[in-house]
């Protein structure tokens, strides 16, 4: 729903910036949730640790339902982009071609696409979507592998005295992700604005590639930092989050721009499903690797 609204309200050359602003909810939520729930539970009882966040979510949700329109036309504005223009992909999609053919025949009313057409014809038969999905899978393996295992690694290998100290050192991950997400979207928009308007998704993918190289470099740097260099450890973790959350944000945006407006929800749902399969593979599989082969194998797996 949010992805479809963003693609409808913001033009291609500015969409990355606003998509990044939306995406930092992951980081802000991860940072604020323990503080909010913990404060409510300690002040009002443990039940309020669950009720307080839920009530805030309901209030904000009601405000959005009443105030947000799904597209500019619903609010009485002109569309931000020509609806018959390509969705920004490097190859034409069947959905765009169908829209162009229907425009040539104004006598016929536009027919609403079926769920089968939206999911199978526009998403699952699109090879570019599958490429994004494969990349998303491995990005989430790394993301979940880092968030789940870095505390244990700090305790065993980097001299952290207890879990609290280790968690403080890992806190830079979400902060770095917030900055990295915002900057990745802005960089991709600037790159697109400087181009001739062609290969929109390709421009964003180039930013993704640069960020993934940064992730690999910072994982190696973090592995090599001595246990006594606490500040350097925190900085490396900050930079891992910076480079990791950029691709997480941009791949979702690329998936939305590879299909037409009617298929954005299906595309994002499919990519999200694949992403969480990747997150699941950072659990038991990585635990077996760490247990049987050690931390060198763990970092080798993330780098591969």
From TrEMBL:
Subcellular location: Endomembrane system
Organism lineage: Eukaryota, Haptista, Haptophyta, Prymnesiophyceae, Phaeocystales
Membrane topology: Multi-pass membrane protein
InterPro entries from the UniProt entry: MFS, MFS_dom, MFS_trans_sf, OPA_Antiporter
Ranges annotated as biased composition (Acidic residues): 97-106
PROSITE patterns: MFS
Residues spanning the membrane: 18-36, 48-68, 128-155, 205-222, 234-258, 270-290
Residue segments, region Disordered: 75-110
GO molecular function, one term: glucose 6-phosphate:phosphate antiporter activity
SUPFAM superfamilies in UniProt: MFS general substrate transporter (SSF103473)
CC terms in the record's Gene Ontology section: endomembrane system; membrane
Ranges of residues in domain Major facilitator superfamily (MFS) profile: 1-304
Entry superkingdom: Eukaryota
GO biological process assignments: phosphate ion transmembrane transport
Principal location: membrane
Coiled coil: none
Keyword set, alphabetical order: Membrane, Transmembrane, Transmembrane helix
Protein name: Major facilitator superfamily (MFS) profile domain-containing protein
């Amino acid at each position: 729903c949010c992805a479809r609204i963003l693609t409808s309200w913001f033009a291609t050359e500015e969409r990355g910036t606003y998509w990044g602003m939306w995406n930092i909810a992951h980081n802000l939520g991860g940072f604020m949730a323990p503080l909010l729930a913990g404060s409510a539970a300690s002040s009002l009882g443990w039940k309020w640790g669950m009720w307080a966040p839920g009530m805030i979510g309901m209030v904000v949700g009601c405000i959005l339902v009443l105030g947000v329109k799904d597209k500019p036309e619903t609010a009485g504005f002109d569309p931000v982009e020509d609806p018959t223009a390509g969705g920004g992909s490097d190859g034409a999609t069947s959905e765009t071609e169908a829209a162009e053919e229907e425009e040539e025949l104004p006598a016929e009313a536009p027919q609403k696409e079926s769920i089968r057409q939206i999911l199978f014809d526009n998403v699952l038969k699109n090879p570019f979507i599958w490429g994004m999905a494969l990349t998303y899978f491995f990005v989430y393996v790394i993301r979940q592998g880092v968030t789940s295992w870095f505390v244990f690694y700090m305790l065993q290998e980097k001299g952290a005295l207890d879990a609290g100290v280790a968690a403080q050192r890992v806190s830079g991950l979400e902060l770095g992700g917030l900055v990295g997400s915002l900057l990745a979207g802005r960089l991709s928009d600037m790159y697109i604005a400087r181009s001739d308007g062609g290969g929109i998704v390709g421009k964003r993918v180039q930013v993704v590639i640069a960020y993934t190289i940064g992730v690999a470099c910072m994982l190696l740097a973090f592995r090599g930092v001595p246990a006594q260099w606490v500040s350097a450890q925190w900085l490396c973790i900050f930079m891992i989050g910076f480079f990791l959350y950029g691709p997480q944000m941009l791949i979702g945006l690329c998936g939305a721009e590879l299909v037409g407006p009617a298929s954005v929800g299906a595309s994002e749902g499919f990519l999200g499903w694949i992403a969480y399969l990747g997150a699941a593979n950072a659990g038991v599989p990585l635990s077996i690797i760490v247990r049987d082969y050690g931390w060198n194998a763990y970092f080798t797996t993330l780098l591969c």
